[in-house]
Amino acid sequence: MKECLSRLRREFHAYPEAGWEEFYTTAKIIEYVKELDCFEILTQKECINESFLRGRDVDAVKASRQMALKNGAKEEIIDALGEITGCVCVFDSGRAGASIGLRFDIDCVCVSESKNPSHAPQKLGFASKNEGRMHSCGHDGHISIGLGVAKFISQNKHLLNGKIKLIFQPAEEGVRGGAAVANSGVLDDLDYLMACHIGFCAKSGEIVINPTNFLCTSKVDVKFKGLASHAGASPNEGKNALLAACFAVTQMHAISRHGAGMSRINVGRIEAGSGRNVIADSAKLEIEVRGETSQINAYMLERVRAIALSSAQAWDVECDIQIVGEACELENSKELTELLDGVLKDDKELKNRFSTVIKTREFNASEDATLLIRRVQECGGKACYFILGADIKAGHHSSDFDFDEGVLESGVMLYQKLLLKLLT
Amino acid sequence: MKECLSRLRREFHAYPEAGWEEFYTTAKIIEYVKELDCFEILTQKECINESFLRGRDVDAVKASRQMALKNGAKEEIIDALGEITGCVCVFDSGRAGASIGLRFDIDCVCVSESKNPSHAPQKLGFASKNEGRMHSCGHDGHISIGLGVAKFISQNKHLLNGKIKLIFQPAEEGVRGGAAVANSGVLDDLDYLMACHIGFCAKSGEIVINPTNFLCTSKVDVKFKGLASHAGASPNEGKNALLAACFAVTQMHAISRHGAGMSRINVGRIEAGSGRNVIADSAKLEIEVRGETSQINAYMLERVRAIALSSAQAWDVECDIQIVGEACELENSKELTELLDGVLKDDKELKNRFSTVIKTREFNASEDATLLIRRVQECGGKACYFILGADIKAGHHSSDFDFDEGVLESGVMLYQKLLLKLLT
Amino acid sequence: MKECLSRLRREFHAYPEAGWEEFYTTAKIIEYVKELDCFEILTQKECINESFLRGRDVDAVKASRQMALKNGAKEEIIDALGEITGCVCVFDSGRAGASIGLRFDIDCVCVSESKNPSHAPQKLGFASKNEGRMHSCGHDGHISIGLGVAKFISQNKHLLNGKIKLIFQPAEEGVRGGAAVANSGVLDDLDYLMACHIGFCAKSGEIVINPTNFLCTSKVDVKFKGLASHAGASPNEGKNALLAACFAVTQMHAISRHGAGMSRINVGRIEAGSGRNVIADSAKLEIEVRGETSQINAYMLERVRAIALSSAQAWDVECDIQIVGEACELENSKELTELLDGVLKDDKELKNRFSTVIKTREFNASEDATLLIRRVQECGGKACYFILGADIKAGHHSSDFDFDEGVLESGVMLYQKLLLKLLT
Amino acid sequence: MKECLSRLRREFHAYPEAGWEEFYTTAKIIEYVKELDCFEILTQKECINESFLRGRDVDAVKASRQMALKNGAKEEIIDALGEITGCVCVFDSGRAGASIGLRFDIDCVCVSESKNPSHAPQKLGFASKNEGRMHSCGHDGHISIGLGVAKFISQNKHLLNGKIKLIFQPAEEGVRGGAAVANSGVLDDLDYLMACHIGFCAKSGEIVINPTNFLCTSKVDVKFKGLASHAGASPNEGKNALLAACFAVTQMHAISRHGAGMSRINVGRIEAGSGRNVIADSAKLEIEVRGETSQINAYMLERVRAIALSSAQAWDVECDIQIVGEACELENSKELTELLDGVLKDDKELKNRFSTVIKTREFNASEDATLLIRRVQECGGKACYFILGADIKAGHHSSDFDFDEGVLESGVMLYQKLLLKLLT
Lengths: 424, 424, 424, 424
What we know:
The structure is a homotetramer. By secondary structure, chain A is an alpha/beta fold.
């Protein structure tokens, strides 16, 4: 199995695609799963709510769709996807039992892969064929684990009761895709949801069963549209989008700290105006807020909105506010982390692979799996997120990133044991 | 007549009252005019539109009303005034003829009169009896001229055709009273309106028939009301009126210059908050805009409004905007300035008194008579404003201000000649 | 002893004095201690560094000094104080031994005492004789405990070795006085320093030996001085202190949050300008910053300073920055809290009085004793702060505040035991 | 001559070069003038003060220099130019007489020329060969007139006394080149300086001898350099260049209007930051100020500087301020406009060509010839600027711009007559 998982991971590594652009990736997943002949494949509205498409660039989507065909994705599968990537593969035993979701994110990072000949993907010939794109966060590994689990299911379909949904989620980078999956309805019947990340804050042989400090965040783009006029002759006839933007920035950064905990605001980028002698007719802000809790994050977001809208009003310009990403805090369901803990302690094979079980360790970043987890919990299910330790060659998102492929088999094995525990 | 006019002026000088507080003054005017027995007296809604009461302090109004009674104003007249000062005295000949308005402003300045024994009002015993109040702009003289004209009308009532309205306007200081008179309807049937100021930019013996550069202006008070909270424990629970105010100030001063001419903005005063460890729940701004034309002034005012409202919205506080004063530019009706010019040239007595007729000279200040003049012109009438020269002892509004009382008789005489010209 | 302590407390309660104005209070303390005939009295530079006088109003100081004489303070003592309140009473045994400081704060709050006849100080006739001033925080009790300890020392002077300094600190309210004492040198030879507060978060019979969450804070006043000019005629000739202030406010509130923990900023009050048609020539801001740690507080303060200075520069106005209060976090020396804990456990009398020993409880406010404690620790000594529980009738700083006087004897007894433990 | 002038104009039209990049243009001018064999050619420091190079892009300069060689400019001339364009051609008669300068600007506009086949330069085959560059302001005509005058001088060198300097100035667009010429010393010995523009506010057959309303202006680029940090983890460790820039913008737009006349400020463009989750470490502002007079413009510029520097200080970032363009108001020397007026009235040929002599007409734009004119006047000489009327096909700076070439011969003829008048 190990070789098979490595082979799969390397195939996906060679064709990395950015968030919402994963047409080749999704098509290959579907092609593989169809072969197994025991899954129903859900796509588009069946697993993605289009009202929650965060930070999706329509032009890039179209280009990537064309590229997928060129690279050999099957036309009938691409047709079935329409313009929406990602899929959910459903195994239904037809027998009573729990309903379990496993979530795997599938997008890459916008980084050019290292050309260093000692970089393993170069040396072994599976480096990115898409310039400016690289699986430098390990999602290629996640896909591979997901397909390994699919194969396991197909081989044990008479044994497993209940229902299993393998969720291949697009656009995790920038925490963009989670909201669309969480609000699609595909999770609402789940009794359990599990998700994990490889690498990160844990080494090969380690597993963190209850990582902490997942930051709630919203990513927001604000555009102001005004009216140009000559800055010397008729400045009053202009509607100054640049000034609206600058006063919005200064007010956003002055949003009050929150008494209940950590909050953050950053306008990280501004671009406005065309030339020095013209009243600027357009401006764009790229904004991020964070909060220690969802409430604090919501407070920050509400204040950002109010300031954007009122700055537009003050300067008589139009304002467009887009949420382009979001994630919330993580609260693992106790029942599931205990189950995980128990399996890791009791199962010999797993004990062998995970010699160090870490209860909690700080994650200190954002993950949109949290939105899926919250949804499942809100619908009455249990959900958890854990870290599968894996030695890495360089930091996540760097061009020299690579990970110990041993984690792939370990990951599949852990999910096998969990499925067997819950569904037999 | 000269002695009579001086006596009247000094009586009013001794009891100066600030804008909207002229109860004693109005009562004494009415008492005097009633004696003449040929005028109808209009008060309250008949000559003041209460929707346009600019910069009126209700508490000060009540106190001044009581004081007027104490100082000997007749109770039945004060009762008739209600809480509104000013009056219009209408002479209607019952015969066909033009309808003419003459406007006299009656309020004083909030200045304490000089205690210097060489200051004439002190030496001659008619200095202000109301501490902190002084007729240091010459409106006492204006009242006196108005009453002199009233007497002349009563003595020539069989000679004069048409209709004459003597408009005793409250609250010219701060350009507060004009709007209420202009919008009351009392001017709408006038064929002619005339108004003047004594002193200012012209000496005894001079008259300026077409003064220029009257500044359009609006005076605005903005109050923000928020919610206090503890700045350490729960800053986010406050609604910060101080921040709303400061962001309003910074945005107001950034209102674009106008391509068509001079504009001005000044937030001259701010006061907000109660203490350093409390999120401020209240703030007040005192604002002034100006424009070379009414349009420019209106542009500035509209921008101030939009910024005040949107700053309130940005910081989730309430906002109250009050116009507390306004004046517009002056455009004298050519027909009237030519009439004035002609009378001054042709009449021997007038030539004697006004040896120097100045066509134009810059006024460089604001006057709310401009609102009355614009109203008359909009209704199809003619209107003008002129400067009656008078030597002054010190600048207008200073505590040593005094003027050459010779101007009183000259003023009455000029109006006599004009009335005779137009109504016989 | 109980009656004596109550009597003392009530005498001080009747003559409350605000921070830096405690002339009567200091004189009475000195008068009492001199009678005991075994203390050296330090005043002025001996215990107050005049470079660190925070938030001191010179006019109020002078008035209070006169009032103290009128109320019967001894003239020779007032002369000795000069214009500086507070004193340190030093007992030196002349024998080897530790050097111990005990700190008692002596100022009152600017609150008018309740006139309610059921309010004990009214009922029993010791209510404040100084209108607008009230010992509504319990510092009258602190003084009383301090004098009780002084009496104990005088009665046991042959028993006690080493040196004891009783520090009667002015101006704790607004965290104003601590810095001047901490930087005077009077603490630098201490091996131990102890301070406490009565009431607060603990009831009669309770004692909190290691209260937490003392907020670091700096209180800052910023004044801008510009140049007035006519807002219509020559706005450019003015130097706009109001605008400088508003841009300072907006920038201060935009100071970045700190990655290492809680920070706060509040401009709680602004007042600027004289009238709407004048470019404002003066402005004043009342500001407060806080930080979870001294470093974070220092970061906030440094940013406030930089913004104040640069806003002045931007608008060509002068800027005056005054620190008017400061406090830091509390880190009790472990050795001392353990000593305290041990004494409370081992001593029967104390066990009787303090039935409940609380290890930690949140203080959630600021205290300038923290500055004294930090100083002693920096000089190599040990220091701690604790809460002497006492039932209170109403919240600290309210006009109905009163406390269970039983705490006075308990407090003196605790210090007695500690002194005996450390100095015999 | 007419054909010769047209031919020259069209040659330059085909190779338009932007400001500071006019290597081909300058080389061709020098080549032509050298042929005439009576001029000394001044380049680099002889006519350009490198401390006043406004708005010059070093990379573009280098590229353009290479392109000039490729297009056939003589290598020895390009070598002589170094990296500085423009030249002054000096005819010195060796005989006593006045010293006269004529100024011709030589740069093009960054506009792509119309591809419309009916556009004359397209139809006649002399359209721009440099994409994105076009002589759409008529400076190609100015060069042609200058060379026509050079030819006339060479043909009349025994007749003309004194000295003549033909000043071929780079970079008039954006008012960038004038300051470097004005401060080079090359003008300081001139008794007379004349400059003109073709087209603009006057038609063929018209000449405006004293155009008015030249706007004083300064173009300023401000760059802020801060320090990036992670917006979530350690926002306080960043030095926020974006916030410094936004607070600079808001303050700049709030610079007070000027009592003495029209002023303008516009930040027309801002770009800052790299991404939403990073504290921005760089920002750039493109700014323009204007004033009715040099003093007002200087006031605006001084305020912009102060605000830029102090915003940098407030946010602890570095600040770089570059003046990238400047022009002042025009005050033609009365003696010269009268001379011009006289020649136009007296000379038959000129009367024929210029049927309409317009005394004043508003220019309503900026021109850096004003800096040369002011310099000459400051050094004791006389100087003037006039408009040579010419029908135009489309507005200056538009891609369809073209002008009536008849103006070329008229322009040369006018200069001939003036030179003969002044130097014979």
